[in-house]
Design brief:
Rossmann fold; 27 strands; 3 domains; Glutamine Phosphoribosylpyrophosphate, subunit 1, domain 1; binds 5-amino-5-deoxy-1-O-phosphono-D-mannitol; alpha/beta; 8-stranded antiparallel beta sheet; globular; 18 helices
């Protein structure tokens, strides 16, 4: 949520900042800006809208080479998206970029007294406090540390002082911030992808750290002002993974990446068709004697958690709770010594999921994270971590990450079942053999023909509201389908367990209301048929996502999207690809900004 980049070095800072901002734009894209040193002055350019707009403005301002600056791409929290509210913010002495939220900014604003504010942001208040402290102390580090002592909330800051040219300062608390160390200069960024093109070496800041970065060196100070020893790490990420290839949108490319992502994850976490977590969890006792499993996540990752609940309860016979992290972190969950908590997160930086993890760590509950981003905070702070190998996901709508998260949840369920002896090795091998068909055959088959999705999209694109119904794991797939459709097409939709609709919501069904029925679990075909009849007799237009063998569903549906026949270890995965394509083609038909839907950001690092 919001992206920060800063640079000081021998190369062209303007180009590096613009490059970094483009790589970070998936984190927020309602406005962008940058401040650069130019002839002993700081010059700032900002724009409402995209980095491409900023680039045009910056070209006019900075025709000569510049060597140091900070940049930002914004996802608005305080104050609407506008040029005035865009970062950097500051005074003639200091400019800052900020990710996160300053919870006590109103009090601090009042305490500043007779100071004029031009924006509605919490960030401007911080800039003015640093300015005040700097005028008092004439010491940049002291002024930042003094400011840090006053702030409540989460923040990563990039700071430059007008009279300290070619030096970038940084402060971090509860919001990601890394320092990149390159041969030709140094960087700060909220995400390594912003500087990976230039260097794969980085320094991780801890909460409360202040850093001073020149083109030759980095100094880090703890909150008490003492200098810290720093250690460099090397990224395992590949810089060149962000292209769209021949696809018009990242979302479509990422859906097409699914067979490879699932194959890679399968390769890393299974051996001879048995789950194998030995690389990160060498001791099987980790899976023994588990009381309750608590799955905590947000959005799509939470829906992967629901599929995980289904797998674990069915196969390992362990009770599972699933809770959105934003509620879990403030709740008073019943946690017992032998419980296990699983945090699922693509980015590994989601603020609520991270806070839930920290709360669990404090209570000494066993934690295991399922994360797609190596080096992310959740990965670093979890008791154990299992990586999904989806590769970087750029589109805001999560697609391939969901399928590999569900895959890992299946493997965890199978592993626990083996250790608990609720399944034999032969049974587990059977399940994994049928699962592997998903990425070798079934998903490639679905991807090979977009006609059914385009037909269904024509129906949906004319509508304002839609409903999803399903039973068992198909109900959980419906939750994810509904989120995907809302997120990128802006069609309002709700997902219901099919038997629940008649307890109130069916009053909303009228002539022409689309109802998408998900019916891949054979044991529910007849029940689903009855539920489809109920909505059809009230005027609904029914689009069914079902297996090829679901004849009784197909014959009463107005539009059919089939997925290959499969078991419980296949259907949630093939359905996921199908509902993602349905959302994609609907949004395409409606001419939406698919990769960067309004109001959203890829990584939600504020509460
Ligand atoms: O990075 P995370 O997996 O923790 O993100 C959680 C949600 O913010 C994310 O899944 C969100 O719901 C997606 N945009 C949905 O497509």
């Amino acid at each position: 949520m919001c992206g920060i980049i800063g640079y000081t070095g021998n190369d062209n800072a303007k180009e590096i900042l613009l490059d970094g901002l483009s790589a970070l734009e998936y984190r927020g894209y309602d406005s962008a800006g940058m401040s650069l040193f130019k002839n002993n002055d700081i010059i700032t350019v900002k724009t409402q809208g995209r980095v491409s707009e900023l680039s045009k403005k910056a070209s006019a301002q900075f025709s000569e080479k510049t060597f140091c600056g900070i940049g930002h791409t914004r996802w608005a929290t305080h104050g609407k998206p506008s040029e005035t509210n865009a970062h950097p913010h500051g005074t003639e002495n200091v400019m800052i970029v900020h990710n996160g939220i300053i919870e006590n900014y109103k009090e601090l604003k009042n305490e500043l007294g007779n100071v004029n504010f031009y924006s509605d942001t919490d960030t401007e208040v911080v800039a003015k406090i640093i300015d005040k402290e700097y005028r008092k102390t004439r010491d940049p580090i002291k002024s930042i540390i003094n400011t840090h002592r006053l702030l409540k909330g989460s923040y990563a800051l990039g700071i430059i002082f007008a009279d300290i040219p070619d030096t970038v300062f940084a402060l971090k608390k509860d919001s990601p911030l890394l320092i990149g160390t390159g041969k030709n200069g140094m960087f700060i960024a909220s995400d390594i992808s912003a500087f990976l093109k230039y260097t794969d070496r980085y320094i991780r800041l801890s909460d409360g750290d202040t850093a001073m970065i020149t083109k030759e060196c980095v100094c880090v100070f703890a909150a008490d002002g003492n200098k810290k020893t720093i250690s460099e790490e090397r990224s395992v990420k590949n810089a060149d993974v962000t292209g769209k290839g021949n696809f018009n949108h990242f979302m479509l490319k990422e859906i097409f990446d699914e067979p490879d992502a699932m194959r890679n994850t399968f390769g890393s976490l299974t051996k001879d068709f048995l789950p194998d977590f030995s690389a990160t969890i060498p001791d099987d006792s980790f899976f023994e004697d588990i009381g309750t499993i608590h799955i905590v996540a947000c959005g799509t990752a939470l829906h992967a958690g629901l599929q995980g609940k289904y797998f674990i309860e069915k196969l390992a016979k362990i009770p599972v709770t699933t809770e959105t992290a934003g509620e879990f972190r403030y709740s008073d969950p019943i946690l017992r010594e032998n419980d296990l908590a699983i945090i699922i997160s693509q980015s590994g930086e989601t603020a609520d999921s991270l806070a839930a993890l920290r709360m669990l760590n404090k209570k000494h509950i066993r934690t295991l994270s399922v994360v797609n981003t190596p080096g992310s905070t959740i990965a670093e702070e979890s008791g154990k971590v299992v990586f999904t190998l989806a590769g970087q996901e750029i589109a805001v709508a999560s697609t391939k990450a969901y399928n590999v998260q569900c895959e890992v949840m299946l493997f965890l369920a199978l592993k626990t079942a083996l250790v608990k002896k609720t399944l034999t090795s032969a049974e587990v091998k059977n399940i994994l053999h049928s699962f592997s068909r998903v990425f070798t055959d079934s998903i490639p088959t679905i991807l090979s023909n977009n006609t059914p999705f385009r037909k269904a999209a024509e129906i949906l694109s004319g509508c304002k509201n839609a409903f999803f119904i399903g039973r068992g794991y198909d109900n959980y797939s419906g939750q994810e389908a509904s989120l995907k459709l809302k997120e990128i097409s802006y069609i309002h939709s709700e997902a219901y367990a099919a038997g629940e609709l008649k307890h109130g919501t069916i009053s909303l069904i009228e002539e022409g209301t689309p109802v998408i029925s998900i019916a891949t679990d054979k044991k529910f075909y007849e029940k689903m048929r009855s539920n489809i009849e109920e909505v059809k007799s009230r005027g609904a237009v029914v689009i069914s996502v079902c297996c090829e063998n679901a004849q009784i569903i197909k014959e009463i549906s107005d539009c059919v999207i089939t997925v290959p026949n499969g078991t419980f270890a296949e259907n949630p995965f093939t359905t996921a690809t199908a509902i993602q394509l349905l959302a994609y083609y609907t949004a395409l038909e409606m001419n939406r900004d698919i990769d960067k839907p309004r109001n959203l950001a890829k990584s939600v690092t504020v509460e």
